[in-house]
Fold each of these.
Amino acid sequence: MREYQAVVVKLTRRTQEDEDSLTDLFNERSRGGWEPALMAQDEHRLTVIFQRQATVEGVP
């Protein structure tokens, strides 16, 4: 079973700030075992759907 997490990032139109925010977001999620599954963008925001394998208690 997989679990999902959606993150919406407001874009600032300042390239360096947006790059830093996205880098931090992906690094943070990666450390938690999340990987990007889907991305969508409009003029003002980026939506990223992350996924990871769900852990079930008692099952290795």
Amino acid sequence: MGKAAAVSLEGDKVKIVHASLRGKNITIDKTEVVEEREFDNYLRTAKASEFIVTCDFKEAFHDVITTPVVKEQYLSKIVESEIRKASARHDLVFIYTTIGEKVAGNKKVLEVFYFAVSKEALRQVVERFYDNGKTVRAVYPHVFSAASLFDSHLAGDAHMGIFGTGKARTIFFARKSQAPAARKTPIENPNSIYFIRNYESYETELSDFDIQNINMTISYCFQNIRLNPSAVYLMGGLAELPQISVTPTAPLTSLFRPEYINCSRETFNEYFLPVASFLAPGPSNILSQDFKNIYLLKSCMAYAVQIFVILAALCVGITFYEAKGAAEKKERINLSKKGRADIEAVFTAYSEREEKINQYMPVVEFLNRPSPDIKKLLISLAEIYFGDLTLNTVNAYAKEENTVSVTLQGKAAADTYAAMQDSLDNVTNELRKSENMEITNSSVDLKEKTFSIEMNYKTQ
């Protein structure tokens, strides 16, 4: 059974859930609510080192687009191009879901829903955790976390959900994916989000004003996508249905706690967004590739440290065992000094044993040295613009107590030596701006189109 921690950033409040995960079963162990201004203090003292984050991005771009029916490896580039055309922005990270195929203008096209936010908005969320010594495993837009609670057994092909954080409301329309079975949709979820609408209500509880907005949204969806939801699901704090006088145009029902989530109904309704993030499909993680690489590297380093500690313990055990054997031999020598004529031979054997023990001591001393902290180095590298250079490998070796020898290697897209050298100079100049970095060597290989940068990084 694994332990996990999830955070939901909801305006001036931050909701935290600690849970035990076993397959799809979720057992809620602890819940917390902290003020947004106190969240940094919470992170500094929190025992959990890794978090799943659900965020309500105030500035987001989302819509349904149509693309040619192409193979999956080409679809991402087409979606990215369409997002840039629609938003006139080039600084966005995005996720998308394949809704299905349809015929438009005598041609078969693919319907795709995308959700995009700026890299800066995402960086502000993620770096808050890294600055306080924590790791972000995934970042889910809050509507994708909520939609993960729509199970495949729900009646009908189309569903609508509504939830609120304070007076802010989010309505989303989802339908069962119509993509062919042969197509691997990027979001492995039986329901694909089709439409999102945000508005401000007058009250924190569900009111007639909300029912009017629900009816307007249903009417809009029918006019534009020719679908009506089989039901409208009230989620979170809105699930406790109060008295309303306006009649909804679709059946209204509450989405209560599933059986595989073990907690009280009140806890589920209050913390449904961080709880739902445990169920969110991996590809709906909007974390940029740079931060995903950092998370992967930190995970690999964590496993390496565990193996390192085990080997250190084994080496120390062997050392003590050998030392104990040497001590016993020395005692025997002292007892037999008077009566044994071969004392010199015994002492020579003892000296050989002692020399063998001493061979282990450098290993033990090395293993007992504190591991260098290269977290800030990785964050600095993620922020550097490499231009025509593509960073492939980062090799780091402990050189001294507070110094790490780092080698950066990768590929260059330029065709001339001058262009490659200019790109390399730009990167090394950026690296030199950090007082902790000292460039010792840099080179490019025009024939292989590769580059290499060697430097010393001071961890303190």
Amino acid sequence: MKKSRLLLIPLVILLAGCNNQIEIGFSNGDTHSAGPDRETSSKEGGVISYSYMDNAALDNTGLNIATLTFANISTSKSDIEDKELIMSYLSVNQDILTGVDNPHYVSTKDDGTFFIGADSSYVDGMLTLYFNVNIKNIEITAKPYYSISTAFNEEVLTYDHEVCIAINNTGYIKLNEQVNEENKEVSSSKLSYHLEQAAGAVTIKVGKRRAIFEKIDLYY
């Protein structure tokens, strides 16, 4: 009987060790962190397939234009779900915006930056805008998300690669990755979209990480 109990001791130690490994592995494997630069688990959404297209050739003859810009941003917030708060950040020079919906990975920085997307190539950022008119053409001025860090008394610019944006059922258009090393900034791109069917609901999707939005021109 004593020998049987002795034989069980190594098994108990082994099981206890396994439990510790599971708990430690879970803590170390958590890729979410606070703030707008948080990472997203690479397994969260699975692999996404992207269909790319070039900038559309827009014919805006006879159309009205409204410009959407971003204002009142003074704090850093990550993955905002509060629709009223998002609306407070959107400024349109024509009274056509009525609401927003489906925010996924919509974030801000305290320097006034508004961006959509996650630090992951496995999920898309998204935001739907509602208007009281039907939008026909869209021009988005945006750039890849970037940041500047200091290492060894030198400023280092890092930015997201292969960032792309789609509108409703259009293909994705890639943002340029032109960098001004002297000024430590990434150049803006103007992406143009023609909607085959004019729509009062416009869904913006951002893939392969994050895009900083500067303005959106809406033609109707």
